[in-house]
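Field reference: sequence -> structure
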Amino acid sequence: MIITKNELLASLNAPEAFILALVRTEKGLAHEPVYVRQFFKRELGFAETAVVFNFEELSTRGSRPD
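Structure field:
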């Protein structure tokens, strides 16, 4: 899963307001979303345009909708 620099900057600039929603799909059907807060904590490098995340690992940091 790739998250762009703009998305990561938004998460760093307003960490309490930024929520990443992850939705797994199988055979055209969407599963319940998992919401991940404050998942990115480092500054981006000058030449970085995106960061690759492992979907499975990132989804373990999230929670189900309230």
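Note: The first strand starts at residue 2 and ends at 4.
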